[in-house]
Amino acid sequence: MTAEMTTPDVTGREAEDLANAGLSVDGAELREVLEHYYEKGWTDGLPVVPVTESYLQEFLARTPRDPDDVLFEVPHLNRALTVRLAAINAGLAGCLPAYFPVVVAAWDAIAQEPHPRRGIWQSTTGTAPLTVVNGPIREEIGLNSAGNVFGSGFRANATIGRAIRLALINVFGLVPHQLDQATQGTPAKYTACIAEWEEESPWEPLHVEQGLDASDSAVTAFVVRSVVHIEARHTSDPDQLARDFADTVARTGALIHEYTNALLVLTPEHAQVFASAGWSKDDVRRAVFGHAVRTRAELKAVGKDAISHNARWRLPADHPDAMPDTASGTDDPDHVHALGRPSSVQVMVAGANNAGVSAVVEVFGLAPERTPRERPCSVSRIERR
Amino acid sequence: MTGREMLLDPTGMDERTADGTLAPRPVTLRGLTIGLLDNTKPNATALLRAIEAQLRQRTEIGETRLYTKDYFGTPVKDELLTQIAAECDVVITAVGDCGSCSAATVADGILFEREGVPAVSIVSDSFFMSGRAMAKVQGFPGFEFLAAAHPVASLDDDGLRQRAETLTPDVLRVLGVEA
């Protein structure tokens, strides 16, 4: 861009600069457009891409779904997200039209999750949607599954996650300080979309575990709180490694309800520590479930040794609303599992193959069902046209 | 090039039918049946019972009936709404002390008003803006609800009694009855 781009008499050198830049714009008009979105409140705080009807049509052309199909609704807010609205917000987020089938599938998966439709994104807990992508579409649209997988730098990851956020703000009115009452939230509320590095995984990919074909492209939706790093560059012992994960899964600060859930995002190196010892994903799950235990005394020390009668939130045993937790009624009442069942742990592979650094993604799961969910996530196949 | 086009509205919002009409107010609570709707949050029942005790000190109210929502984060289900409207003359609901339940508690109050039952929704004052935003999406932006000093969940019996004492004059005012 040159400062003289609006000057009518362009010198030879300036003409060359313009040709090299390839583009000349009316900067004032561009900024006016961006400011219009800010004035309307149609943004997450970052600039958005203007969307008009002809650009919207490019998105709608990529999906077999009808523009008026409802992808996700929150009845108590009187709001529903159509394919058309999902596309407008994907465009605002900076998605290319080719990404749109992933966004549609992400909404389909979110719609299957129990908490979003019941208002979890109005909640103080401040969770965010995490979108995990599997299958051939990863390569086609350049989704990152390798180094810096939770970081910045990749348009598809950055904008697909943001497409979800912008629709939550714009369509559902989940505006911070208004219907979004997150106490602190999480950086993942800007965007959170990662791909699995299936080729580096010793096991079957996440979507195949959930019954889809390896040749399918798919989205798995999680509702997440923190992403916590696990530093373990020192060990090739699978049990040591499983204990390191379990310690983070069972940290008392994560315990809001009776149980928690986790997605382990293993780097190729850590996946190999398990796989070369002959461990399957289920072996990893069982080991982490078995080690993710707090003693009654540890829970008492932080005032989380009982649960409330109806909402089943952890609180001290001497609280007026306290009742004993499930473990209290077993023959081992002094050891309390932080996880409801082994399948409360999901396992995938992503991140550079350069260090023993993985992550525990803390996955939200409410208690009113009493019985923990079979899996703390929902999958949806990506449909393209 | 497509030429100049209008920017599209990404919200899908339209002007919803607004219904900001309150249910008819009773002149007094004397002899009336009062519904207490517990949204399952810690101390919700205790706060409602403490308010009941305050009301009994001031007026010869009729019986009270305690109901429990099955989930705090969404508005009361239709069946329970109909049941409470059939069995009670006024209803008090508490306690919206989180993001989703504050909004849901306000939505509950609006639903009761539209069923013809005067209602008092109680949220904690940290969540006043959430309740306001919910009243707006429900088409009743001026709906009045009460804000108790935050927190409620961690209060002991004395603390609950004090909250109830502070709230009760406003409960009576919202219900439109004499103290």
TrEMBL record, chain A:
Put simply, this protein is called Uncharacterized protein
Origin organism of this chain?
A: Nocardioides eburneus
From TrEMBL, chain B:
Q: So which domain of life are we looking at? A: Bacteria
Which part of the chain is the UGSC-like domain? Answer: 7-176
Renumbered residue ranges of the record's region Disordered: 1-21
What the entry lists under InterPro entries is as follows: UGSC-like_dom, UGSC_seleno
Output the NCBIfam families linked to this UniProt entry.
UGSC_fam (NF041046)
Full protein name: UGSC family (Seleno)protein
Q: Which organism is it from?
A: Nocardioides eburneus
Taxonomic lineage is: Bacteria, Bacillati, Actinomycetota, Actinomycetes, Propionibacteriales
